Predict the structure of Spore germination protein PC.
Amino acid sequence: MNQQFHSYLQQLHAFVEAQERRIRSLEAMVKKLQGETEALKSRPPMQVDRIEYKFDQLKVESLEGTLNIGLNPSELQNIEDFAVDNKNIKAPISPKNHMKRTMEIEDAIYQYLETELPEVVSTVQQNLNVSVDDSYIAFIKEDIKKQLPNRIDFYIKQQQAANRGPQENDNAEVIEHIKKEIQNGVHAFISHLPENMKGMNKE
């Protein structure tokens, strides 16, 4: 019993000593921080004198260009070849023209989907010698419509990046690219349908 009590007292004594060391360390740290705080307080405050801009010393040779309202940082990345002599300025397409082009291309593709998509699906079925339900045409059409805005935007930006001015056949070129994508997409979709959803064409 005495042995256990003696051991307990030793452990308690060691614990108290450790706590005292910890307290001394913390006190030293607090004293150091107080000294640094006092040193910072004693420094003279910084004072910024008046800043003057002398606009009368600026020289502007010419002021030309176009003010585009509504640009965002992502569109600014498309501005290229800005020359100091005001020649060779390539700016992104204006939002109004972009919207107009997008609507014209969308209308053309919507008309294509209504008039020619069934024939595209039929041709693919003949080439693959399979038969699919007519309900897939409606499914394909809706899926294409969802993806259309992104694809139109992609091709318009691609044309801008080609460093060329507006061309009369720009919309026709985008429409042809999208039609080609639709034909390839229909082929890929039907060819990857599970076998139980396909039927073989009767020859």
Notes: Residues 15 and 42 are 41 Å apart (CA to CA). The two ends are 104 Å apart (CA to CA). Confidence is low (pLDDT under 50) at residues 67-71, 81-89.
